[in-house]
Write a structure and sequence with these properties.
Blueprint lengths: L1 E3 L15 E4 L8 E2 L14 E7 L8 H11 E12 L4 H5 L29 E11 L1 H5 L2 H7 L1 H11 L5 E11 L14
Parallel strand pairs: 1-2, 1-4, 2-3, 4-5
Antiparallel strand pairs: 5-7, 6-7
Helix pairs in contact: 4-5
């Protein structure tokens, strides 16, 4: 497993799974120090069964190139786990090192539901799961359950409610898809 942006708390897997931490900071617990905005990372293609990027994607300069690198590093059938703040959470904007403010549909361009914008990248991922956590008050009122229960309700929440019923964080799990074919397709789909 590759722990991208591991910081001082490199992931410790159970069951004897080897975890390699990579980070830009030499004072981190990383096994490999490298600039996460320079590609390729110093690993062979498809070298990992799993990759974690916990509160990292919002810090990189280019989300598309970073996702392409994740796709290169993880074998088909493997897993990519990404956690990031929802853009309506205070933590998304209070950290001056955050370059991107994302929502629960920000990675759709890498899947079948790319809305006509699949030409940004040839890297394709199958969405395994998306989980949104909301601020505690809204969680207690049941909104978190509804947002995570239905993709249609999550879309409704993102369009109309998230500025009031604010998100906290998002957890994504993807599987890299091999042989994605050429990007593109029909023009943009308006929601």
């Amino acid at each position: 497993m590759l722990d991208v942006g591991c910081g001082i708390n490199k992931y410790r897997a159970s069951s004897g799974i080897e975890v390699i931490g990579v980070d830009v900071n030499p004072d981190s617990a990383a096994d490999v120090i490298c600039d996460l905005d320079r590609f390729p990372y110093p690993f062979a293609d498809r070298a990992f069964d799993a990759l974690r990027a916990i509160h990292v994607i919002e810090h990189v300069t280019d989300v598309v190139k970073t996702m392409e690198e994740f796709h290169r590093l993880v074998r088909p059938g493997g897993r990519v786990r990404i956690e990031t703040p929802h853009y309506t959470d205070y933590s998304s904007f209070c950290d001056p090192t955050h370059k991107h403010h994302l929502n629960s549909f920000s990675f759709r361009y890498f899947g079948d539901d790319h809305g006509g914008f699949g030409y940004y990248s040839r890297a394709r991922f199958r969405e395994i799961s998306v989980r949104v956590t909301l601020l505690r008050f809204w969680r207690y009122l049941g909104f978190e359950f509804l947002v995570n229960r239905s993709r249609a309700f999550r879309r409704f929440w993102e369009f109309y409610l998230c500025y009031v019923v604010r998100g906290k964080a998002m957890e994504f799990e993807f599987e890299p898809v091999d042989g994605a074919g050429p990007p593109g397709g029909p023009g943009p789909v308006r929601d």
